[in-house]
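re: that chain from earlier
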Amino acid sequence: MSGVFGFFAPDGGGAAETAYFGLYALQHRGQESAGLAVSDGRRIRIRKGMGLVTQVLTDEAVANMPGSISIGHVRYSKAGEPHVANAQPLLGFTQHGQLALAHDGKLTNAPSLRQRLQRDGAVLQTTTDSELILNLIARQTGDPFEEAVVKAIGALRGAFSVVLMTNDKLIGFRDYAGIRPLSIGRHGEATILASESAAFDTIGADRVRDVEPGELVVVDAQGLRTRQLQPAQAAFCVFEYIYFARPDSHLAERNVHLIRKAIGRQLARESRIAADLVIPAPDSGTSAALGYAEESGIPFDFGLMKNRYVGRTFIQPTPALRQKGVRIKLNPVSALLKDQRVIVVDDSIVRGTTSGKTVEMLKDAGAREVHMAIASPPFIHACHYGIDIANTDDLIAAHRTQEEVRKIIGADSLHYLSLSGLYKALQMPGTGLCTACFTGEYPLGVGEPQSTSDLLEDEE
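^ sequence. v structure.
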């Protein structure tokens, strides 16, 4: 998972500063690396590196990137791949001029694309799917630039939301299932593309609409125009609603916070736990916990305080970092918890690292009972579309019963939201969503086996 941002201002200027604030709003989507590319109409300047937006894009760096077009990226990767070479945007010098590109998602045909490009003599310097997309565009010889982009898209399989820029254009496109998000915003005469609408709010822009699945958006001096390249077969990632997106974002015209509250209410109807207190696993469980408390009538409070300077433990690249992240991220409020029967509402249980440590901390703080209420069904299948779960062996619920998982995390009881309950809370029948992590039904297939010639496999 990553966050992408694009900006085009026909009246010139401010692209770097605007992208900085947009990326800051998307920081939750990736905390390993950050990057920014800006065009002043003659050349594209790029700045990227390992770390958070504020660490990589310093005031001095942003001030030295004049221009009216920009794209940016925040990224996390799977274990073994944190490296500055994989930071984005990627910049290339091509027959079409300078191109910069940033990508959220994962290509299911990346191994064969990589082999094909290497057989044709391409020199690849990263393990990213993004470099494959950039090369495919660059190698469409004899075609006008936009047609080169269209042909390259035709060779892609899997999940992709991409922002791309030249010295005079901003382009965005999504796969035909629209697995990963991308939206259009406006600020005066400027056009913005971003993974989430929270980025628009941060810069004072208005959300216009989503980029449709299978749609290409082009912004230049003539304005904004779009092309529907493939018939949409929407299968939006349900985990965006459950965990990834900020609560203040709108996805597919719906507010994430209100959706999560509805999920929490449905979870309360299904679980019926006798308890004294409902607390969230901060921060992604807060909205669902509020809905749970409202529906159940059990008081809501904050029993775990979060260190705001620690990132999201789920998207840390190694188990050791996730373990350490849990320990310094959360601290229980002992005075509130002592002798209480506590319901902890969390968005999901993936590997079980955080849940087990949370239960242990709460009991050490004096809680008499700790019940885990999970605002999603069991996560039992690998993701092939950009989430850092490529192997079912990493999933605590994949080969265990609910009771076995409960014992491992040490909870007094464990309750999952049913799949039908999730659809009911979302007010969707399941069509239009990718729920492969719960059902094993992959709308875009599971992809190709990894070539033994590839040293690494990447997820954007």
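The first strand starts at residue 2 and ends at 8.
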